[in-house]
Amino acid sequence: MKLRRSMLFMPGSNSAMLSTAFVFKPDSIMFDLEDAVALREKDAARILVFHALQHPLYKDIETVVRINPLDTPFGLDDLEAAVRGGAHIVRLPKTDSADDVRRLEAEIARIEHACGREVGSTQLMAAVESASGVVNAVSIATSSPRMMGIALAGFDYVMDMQTERGDGTELFYARCAVLHAARVAKIDAFDVVFSDVNDDDGFLKEVDLIRRLGFNGKSLINPRQIELLHNAYAPTEEDVEYARRVVAAADKAEREGLGVIALNGKMIDAPIVNHARRVIQSALASGVRK
Ligand SMILES: CC(=O)SCCNC(=O)CCNC(=O)[C@H](O)C(C)(C)COP(=O)(O)OP(=O)(O)OC[C@H]1O[C@@H](n2cnc3c(N)ncnc32)[C@H](O)[C@@H]1OP(=O)(O)O
Ligand SMILES: O=C([O-])CC(=O)C(=O)O
Ligand SMILES: [Mg+2]
User: Fold this and answer.
1) What is the pTM of this model?
2) What is the ipTM of this complex?
3) Domain range summary for the chain, segments of one domain joined by +
4) For the HpcH/HpaI aldolase/citrate lyase domain, which residue ranges apply (predicted)?
5) Is 62 annotated as a binding residue?
C-alpha cells in the first residue's frame, strides 16, 4: 500500500530547508517554484531544486516539483528543470481545465525524449484553485494516464469564490467535488494547506474531517504537522483488532459456504470485509495510532 498522507511544501529558494528536509520523512516532499518563491529568486530556486532532486539524500523519498503555470515566463524552464532533474511528480498549480494538463503532458513527453528519460515516467498532479478548476475536476482528474493525484488549493480557491477560510463550510462543495473526481479517475486526493503551524487542535480537527471524507492526505507547510497527520491517519488498536475478527469470521463463513453473517449482532458482508482488510493493510503500512 503506497501511503500518500503528507506532501510537504518547501520554498525551492530556501537552500537550508532543501539540505535538511529529507530527515522529516513526509510521504512526499514538494519543492515549490511557484508562490513561495519571490519573483527575483525564481531562477536561483530552479537551479537549487534541479540539484536537490539529484542528491543521494533524496533518493528514497518521493519528490514533487510545483512549477509555475505554463502561461507564465517561468513555467517551461521550471518544467525542464523538474523533468531533467528526475522529479517523480510535477504538480501543476491553478489548473482550470483538462487542456492545461494536456499541454503540460505534451511538453513533458518532449523533454523526457530530449533528455533520455523514459517517456511516460514523469507523473503528474493538478492543483485546482478556482471555481473553474473545481467544476472541471472530473475531466482534469481523468485527463492523462500520468495523473496520480488531484489537490484542492484552498487559499486561491477562496479568493476566487470571493470568500475566506473559516470553519470549512466554505470548502465543503470543493472538497466533495475533488474527492469524487479522484475516485472516478482512481487517483489520490489531497486536501488544502492548514496555515497556522502553531494551532495543533485546529489542524487535527481539519485532519479528522478530511480523513473521514476520504482524502488520501494533505498538502503541508511545516514538518511539525507530519507526525500529527500520520498518527491521525493510523487506525486505532481497537479498529485493527475488530478488523481481524471480521476477516477471521468471514474466512470461517466462506469455508462453511455461508454468505452474509453476523458478528456481535452486526452484519458482515463483502464491503465490510473489504474495509476490514484495508484497515489491516493500513496498520501494516503505518502502524497503529498512539
Ligand atoms: C498558499 C501556498 O501556496 S502554500 C505553499 C507554499 N508555502 C510554503 O512552501 C511554505 C513552507 N513553510 C515555511 O516556509 C515555514 O514552515 C513557515 C514560514 C510557514 C514557518 O516557518 P518557521 O516559523 O520558521 O517554522 P519552524 O519554527 O517550525 O521551523 C523549524 C525548523 O523546520 C524547518 N522548516 C520549516 N518549514 C519547513 C518546510 N516546509 N520544509 C522543510 N523544513 C522546514 C525550518 O527551517 C526550521 O529548521 P531549523 O530548526 O534547522 O532552523
Ligand atoms: O496548492 C496548495 O495546496 C496551496 C495553494 O497554492 C493554495 O492554497 O492556493
Ligand atoms: Mg495557490
Assistant:
1) 0.96
2) 0.98
3) 6-233, 237-286
4) 5-223
5) no
